[in-house]
Write a structure and sequence with these properties.
Shape: elongated
Number of domains: 2
Number of strands: 2
CATH topology of the largest domain: Four Helix Bundle (Hemerythrin (Met), subunit A)
CATH superfamily of the largest domain: GntR ligand-binding domain-like
Order of helices and strands: HHHEEHHHHHHH
Structural class: mainly alpha
Strand order of the largest sheet: 1-2
CATH architecture of the largest domain: Up-down Bundle
Strand content: under 5%
Mean pLDDT: 89
Largest sheet: 2 strands, antiparallel
CATH class of the largest domain: Mainly Alpha
Length: about 230
Amino acid sequence: MSFKPIASPRLYQRIADEIASLIDSGSFKAGERLPAERELAQKMQVSRSSLREALSSLEMSQHVEIRLGSGVYVRAGRRKKAQPSADHASPFDVLHARRLVEGETAALAARNATPSQIKRMTLKFEGLANDVRANRRKSKADREFHLCIARASGNSALVPLVERLLVDAWQPLDVHMEELYVSQGQERDLIAEHRAVLDAIISGDAVAAKRAMCTHLANAERQRMLMFT
């Protein structure tokens, strides 16, 4: 069988459609293991991150089952249509955009945050830390912590950008990828990462605040690419 090179602004959707069509046509049988992710990425001439998004989407549509450390297997039975929502950007694109925008909001918050804003930020940090310890994923306090930083930046134009990025970051595909690839141990690293951002803002160190935020979001991207086969 041959794979077609893929080119599209929303790449992972096109990749998912291509693989789903091969599965639906019987080119891959139920229970069969798909080629390794590295091989698939090379054959389809796409990035590994876009392929991982596509495979995660295909698991949501019940075309495949992802078994970490083993591979991706075709599922038997009735499947949903493999059509990710067109309303959201790809999870990896969102993480990259967040790193660009939220690195700057953290730096600005270190310069401009008021005592009341820092107090609210600290409360949200405590909430997200409690959520992480309780193994609650996609903490509402985590989201509000990032929004507090944006609002403390002093730049009103950046706030709606962060709000939109956080909406995209909580889309079902990203939630599913976090459940698949981010371990509870890695989740607990979030406490230290957010603490570093908060401490830098409290101390008024814009350089450290930007570095800590960018490190946090880069780690989130890296975690979703671990155990690539």
